[in-house]
């Protein structure tokens, strides 16, 4: 009840084993567990010369793997979403604010319905779905049902050990984009095709009723009488 699916066509044949990390309770963060080494050692990017930290959305012609460097240890948080899913829309402003909270990390988003092969490859059969990549390898999946800026911050910190900027909050600009927070109505082509096919079959059967009766045993003599 907290995700939309399916995200793409087909079933997930290959699902990487990813650890589902939930934000640690506040009392545990102040204990010895908070001193543990990060699970993913991310290489933080150089932010010199970057004036605006924002989310990049991939269009249908762009391939995610072209944006992930397999020879690098830098980390990228990738969101699989669909513009017609209300859970994706409610997550949007929170995800839009993340690049400002973690300027040394990269953030990408893609419409899962337009990248069905990637959805199948990484087992993202429901959206929204968030994966943490190191290089081109998926390392962890965000599985918390409470998708807010704070829970996303906790997830990234628990995985990478990178602390978020404390002065970052969700703003009105984050509600406007780049990830849409307003649902868009899409066309269900499979449903439309099914309705048209059924309507065409009914019309054909109605027009050819007499011909069909001749094919039923016993109807020929009744017709002659």
From TrEMBL:
Any one annotated GO CC term: cilium
InterPro entries: Thioredoxin-like_sf, Thioredoxin_domain, TXNDC15
An annotated GO BP: cilium assembly
Domain Thioredoxin as annotated: residue spans: 18-161
Name listed for the protein in its UniProt record: TXD15 protein
Highest taxon, organism lineage: Eukaryota
Bilayer-spanning residue ranges: 189-207
Region (Disordered): 1-36
């Amino acid at each position: 009840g907290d995700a939309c699916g399916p995200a793409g066509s087909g079933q997930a044949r290959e699902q990487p084993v990813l650890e589902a990390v939930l934000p640690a309770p506040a009392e545990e963060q102040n204990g010895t567990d908070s001193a543990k080494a990060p699970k993913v050692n991310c290489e933080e990017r150089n932010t010199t010369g970057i004036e605006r930290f924002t989310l990049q959305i991939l269009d249908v012609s762009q391939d995610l793997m072209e944006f992930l460097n397999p020879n690098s240890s830098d980390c990228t948080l990738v969101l699989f979403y669909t513009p017609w899913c209300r859970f994706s829309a409610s997550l949007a402003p929170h995800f839009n604010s993340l690049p400002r909270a973690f300027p040394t990390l990269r953030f990408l988003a893609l419409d899962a319905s337009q990248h069905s092969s990637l959805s199948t490859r990484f087992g993202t059969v429901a959206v929204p779905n968030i994966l943490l990549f190191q290089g081109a390898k998926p390392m962890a999946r965000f599985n918390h049902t409470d998708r807010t800026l704070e829970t996303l911050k906790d997830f990234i910190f628990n995985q990478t050990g990178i602390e978020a900027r404390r002065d970052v909050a969700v703003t009105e600009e984050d509600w406007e984009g780049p990830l849409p927070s307003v649902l868009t109505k899409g066309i269900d082509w499979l449903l439309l095709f099914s309705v048209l096919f059924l309507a065409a079959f009914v019309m054909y059967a109605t027009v050819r009723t007499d011909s069909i009766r001749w094919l039923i045993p016993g109807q020929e003599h009744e017709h002659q009488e």
